[in-house]
Amino acid sequence: MTGLLNLATDASDLAPATVAAITGPGRTGLRVGIVLSPTGAWSEIVTAATLADELGLATVGFWDHYHAERPEWAMICGWSAYGYLAAITRRIRLVPMVICRLNYTLGVLAKESSILSIASGGRFELAIGAGDYPPEYEAWHQPYPDAPARVAALGEHVSALRQLWTGRPVFMSGDYVNLTHAACTPVPPEPPRVVVGAGNSKRLIDAAVVYADELNVYENEATVAHARKQIDASGRPVALSIFGRRDPSSWPSNLPATLAHWQKRGASRYLLSVGWDDDLPARVRDLASAQHAVKERS
Q1: Mean of the per-residue pLDDT values of the chain
Q2: Of 27, 38, 11, 16, which Cα lies nearest the Cα of 247?
Q3: What is the percentage of the chain residues whose pLDDT exceeds 70?
Q4: How confident is the model over 17-71, as pLDDT tens digits?
Q5: Which residue has the higher pLDDT, 277 or 124?
């Protein structure tokens, strides 16, 4: 199989502004992101996103599901939503949690990620996963390959995207991606960071550590330890972030302590779902305050 070259991107390939937005300059402390799902309250989402931008949170994003398994869990997501957020914010990074690779053709991924990167001034990151929500595909009668196929296909798609983001014609012959003189322009100002959402999947962690810029895993001690071990063994500058899938009943009693805990275990970002809450701006303020507290302690 060919076409899996140039899969990895070294941090030195990123523009200084991108590196600074994520790691510095001189920045200390865990960076905090907000995930505005599950909710369909658009005006509250807009208020929360602009407030998060003003208060210095690191990222904003949504889950990526078109299917509402529980109708009361309305879902706002999609490229148009990110385009709107790009227009109304100035500095916060747009990081889905996470794009489901199965939901989009490669061409759509290439075009939409490029345009969002342009529209946001390079603030869009392609946070993407292999797809791990069977009810969505059962309800809509869509193909749902087995785990090894989904993981392998994700790697090929990322390889293809890195080449397509250059604007040059791409030729690729793989098990899951085949391209002949495929090109996608205009190109992003710089290649978007690739954040692979691995959840609790050791299989995906092991596969993605060789090409991801960042691994995002669930808030689980064993999973985080495994990801940290694989990153250290890879010899690559791969960042580690945590996805806190919490509802109001399990909101951390001491949020700064929770952030400090994961920072000690090697995480650079902590992204928390808050869409369940009736007062999204209050949660934004809580997260901003906790981020500041951890920074002060570092």
Answers
A1: 90
A2: 38
A3: 91
A4: 444 445 433 345 799 999 999 999 999 999 999 999 999 999 999 999 989 888 8
A5: 124
Q: What's the rounded Cα separation, in Å, for the pair 294 and 22?
A: 16
In this prediction the pTM is 0.90
Give the CB-side neighbour count of residue 70, counting CA atoms within 13 A. Answer: 5
Kindly state the helix (H) or strand (E) to which residue 103 belongs, with its residue range.
none
Rounded CA-CA distance 236/203 in Å is: 18
Report yes or no: 32 and 244 within 8 Å, Cβ to Cβ.
no
Reported as a single tens digit per residue, the pLDDT across 236-251 is 999 999 999 777 778 8
Contact 241, 215 (CB under 8 A): yes
Residue 275's Cβ-side half-sphere holds a number of Cα atoms within 13 Å equal to: 25
| Tokens representing residue 143 in the block | 């193909």
Our CA dihedral for 226, 229, 230, 231, rounded to 10 degrees, sits at 120
Express each pLDDT in 77-115 by its tens digit.
999 999 999 999 999 999 999 999 999 999 999 999 999
Sorted by sequence, the CB contacts under 8 Å of residue 254 that are 6+ apart come out as none
Cα(90)–Cα(159) distance, rounded to whole angstroms? Answer: 30
Decide if 177 contacts 154 (C-beta within 8 A). Answer: no
Please answer whether residues 190 and 122 qualify as being in contact, where contact means their C-beta atoms are separated by less than 8 angstroms: yes
Q: What is the pLDDT of residue 28?
A: 56
At which residue do the structure tokens 């345009």 appear? 115
